[in-house]
Amino acid sequence: MKLYYAPGACSIGIHVLLEEVGKPYEMERVNLQQGEQYKPPFIGVNPKSKVPTLARDDGSVLTEFPAIAYWLARSNPFANLLPDDIDQQARALELLDYAVSTVHMQGFGRQFRAANFTPNAADEEAVKTKGKDIAEKGFSLIDKALEGKDYAVGKFSIADAAVFYVEFWSKRVGMTLPANCAAHLDRMLARPTVQRVMQQEGLA
């Protein structure tokens, strides 16, 4: 397997899952600042121009965080990345999707790339403010989901990899996480797999 990633991007969550699985994999950095995601050879691998992208051993390519996370969990059941209980599986997917589609794409997307949400430069600060509001609401809901639990559905799952990366991003924009989210981030950062990922991506 080969993970196409950018340091500290959402691909960090998939990187963590690969470490949790423990099978051999390669990494190839995509320099987003230099626009490598829009150029050959990467667009030949993923024309969506996004990370994470996972090239599998059979030569096929899998894209989109939820799909990659789900495939890693189901194809490596020994890693226990999804609960056995179907309701708990649904809850894990529910939280993962919310972290990716709302907190990331709507909340942090507006804060990191305000110009993508308005044609008027004068509106960009309002766009960023709206993004912060969305992210703060998102974290308040995630905080409730984490109440009384070490991890999203009791024990570590693919949901925690997604929640982790948006929690990690909160520091970039000076957001204060609610208590359960802050404790979850600390718990994640203490996992040996996460520590290895941080080291490998130059974020330690």
Describe the structure in your own words.
The chain is α+β, with helices and mostly antiparallel strands. The chain has two domains: 79 residues, Glutaredoxin (3-Layer(aba) Sandwich), CATH 3.40.30.10; 106 residues, Glutathione S-transferase Yfyf (Class Pi), Chain A, domain 2 (Up-down Bundle). It is built from eight helices and four strands; from the N terminus they run E-H-E-H-E-E-H-H-H-H-H-H. A four-stranded mixed β-sheet has the order 2-1-3-4, covered by helices on one side. Helix 1 packs across helix 6, helix 1 crosses helix 8 and helix 4 packs parallel to helix 6. It is globular.
Keywords:
204 residues, alpha+beta, Glutaredoxin, Glutathione S-transferase Yfyf (Class Pi), Chain A, domain 2, 2 domains, four-stranded mixed β-sheet, 4 strands, 7% strand, globular
Helix content: 40-55%
- How far apart are the termini? 24 Å
Strand order of the largest sheet: 2-1-3-4
SSE topology string: EHEHEEHHHHHH
* Second rung of CATH, namely the architecture of the largest domain: Up-down Bundle
What overall form do the CA principal axes indicate?
A: globular
Largest sheet: 4 strands, mixed
Number of helices: 8
Strand content: 5-15%
CATH topology of the largest domain: Glutathione S-transferase Yfyf (Class Pi), Chain A, domain 2
- Mean pLDDT reading: 97
Question: What's the CATH first level of the largest domain?
Answer: Mainly Alpha
Number of domains: 2
Radius of gyration: 17 Å
* Structural class computed from helices and strand pairing: alpha+beta
In the predicted model, the low-confidence regions spanning at least 5 consecutive residues are: none
The number of strands is 4
